[in-house]
Design goal:
Elements (H helix, E strand, L loop, with lengths): L2 H9 L16 E4 L2 E5 L12 H14 L14 H13 L4 E5 L2 H12 L4 E6 L4 H9 L3 E5 L4 H10 L4 E7 L11 H11 L2 E5 L13 H4 L8 E6 L9 E5 L1 H10 L1 H4 L6 H16 L1 H20 L11 E7 L1 H13 L2 E2 L2 E2 L7 E6 L6 H13 L1
Parallel strand pairs: 2-11, 4-5, 4-6, 6-7, 7-8
Antiparallel strand pairs: 1-2, 3-9, 8-9, 10-13, 12-13
Helix pairs in contact: 2-11, 3-11, 4-5, 4-9, 6-7
This protein binds pyridoxal-5'-phosphate (PLP).
Length: 376
């Protein structure tokens, strides 16, 4: 039944396949029996396979077992869930926090929970797919503003006279690696009394000494700001969170359907997130190393005159034109033992090679990437 549809995708060269890793995540990975230097992971700090964290996971399995067997509102959560929320509340400077099962689940749960039929949501056109889906599930109206276009945003906000307005933005845009102008957005929120909902998936553990985008911009966590973020990127674990004022978090806990009707994360995953938070608080040099590597790659790439779009973070996308050309370059890199994925529509409008730099890449890894890019 879907055969013809698949054929069309194949003809457009938009059919994707899954690569199954034969090694842990890390700066080097194996698949198909071969080792590659890995520039595709969001494991910015190399915590996805950290021995200290693994030991804490093992201990948590001894203490709390493995499966969680029900939703958090029944008996699925352990005291580790609460400990993680308490730590996170402090880490994000908020009043309260709630753990979600994934970033996707957080966005599709929280956005409908904090809006109703009288709300207007203003959403950046390059926001993550899970925000788009959260807006689709909301009973409110969604208005898309041009990417990081502050005058456009202000114009749209000014024109609407709803009594509940919410501005939603990624802090770090996951495909271009640029940063939202949160200081300007903050001012608009203040001026027009709107809520601000930020998705700090790629900011947490990366920006503001790891504390995320608000810290990066020196913005105080106000009661009208909701910080969403994930444990699945720089923290190397799995799951997500919302942090904000006490009443918002309690409201979300009581109305967010993806929280209410889904089994709690296993305690061992929560233990990993706690250990990762501890690690980045105690080892600021980890994040420094990430930025040293990131700046090195960015500088080299400028020198060899690739168009790295608007990258300001460890996500560096190279504009490569057509789907054909993008696949050719990504194929050539693979041949040379470098995994940097081709990103094509519908994930993005313009095809690109997306490079994620991590703290665990060596100088040698970086030089091999640049040498190989020079050859293409
Ligand atoms: C990855 C990502 C998500 C989804 O998080 P998961 O934990 O992988 O489900 C949400 N928002 C943004 C901006 C992301 O980059």
């Amino acid at each position: 039944m879907f055969f013809e549809k698949l054929e069309i995708l194949k003809k457009k060269r938009l059919l994707r396949n899954i690569r199954n890793r034969e090694s842990p995540q890390g700066p080097k990975i194996r698949f198909g029996g071969r080792e590659y230097i890995n520039f595709s992971s969001n494991d910015y700090l190399g915590l996805a396979n950290n021995p200290l964290i693994i030991n804490k996971i093992k201990k948590s399995i001894d203490d709390y077992g493995y499966g969680s067997a029900s939703s958090r509102l029944l008996s699925g959560g352990s005291i580790l869930h609460k400990e993680l929320e308490d730590r996170l509340t402090k880490f994000k400077g908020a009043e309260s926090a709630l753990v979600f099962n994934s970033g996707y689940s957080a966005n599709i749960g929280i956005i409908p929970a904090i809006s109703d039929e009288n709300s207007v949501i203003f959403s950046d056109e390059l926001n993550h797919a899970s925000i788009i889906d959260g807006c689709r599930l909301s009973k409110g109206k969604t208005i898309i503003y041009r990417h990081k276009d502050i005058p456009h945003l202000e114009d749209l906000v000014k024109k609407e006279d709803a009594n509940s307005k919410i501005i939603i933005t990624d802090t770090v845009f996951s495909m271009d690696g640029d940063i939202a102008p949160l200081n300007d957005i903050y001012n608009i929120c203040k001026k027009y009394r709107t809520l601000l909902y930020i998705d700090d998936a790629h900011g947490t553990g990366v920006l503001g000494n790891g504390r995320g985008a608000l810290s990066h911009f020196n913005i105080k966590p106000e009661p009208w700001i909701i910080q969403m973020g994930t444990f699945s990127k720089a923290l190397g674990s799995y799951g997500a969170f919302a942090a904000g004022s006490r009443d918002v978090i309690e409201w979300v806990q009581n109305t967010s359907r993806s929280f209410m009707f889904s089994t709690a994360l296993p305690s061992c995953i929560i233990a990993a997130s706690i250990a990762a938070l501890e690690l980045i608080e105690e080892n600021p040099e980890l994040i420094k190393r990430l930025w040293t590597n990131r700046n090195k790659v960015a500088e080299y790439i400028q020198r060899i005159k690739f168009n790295s779009m608007q990258s300001e973070t460890p996500i560096i996308s190279l504009r490569t034109g057509t789907v054909e050309n993008t696949l050719r370059i990504s194929g050539y890199l693979l041949e040379k033992g470098i995994f940097a994925p081709a990103i094509r529509p519908p994930a993005v409008k313009d095809s690109r090679i997306r490079i994620s730099v991590t703290a665990t890449h060596t100088d040698d890894d970086i030089e091999r990437l640049i040498e190989t890019l020079k050859e293409v």
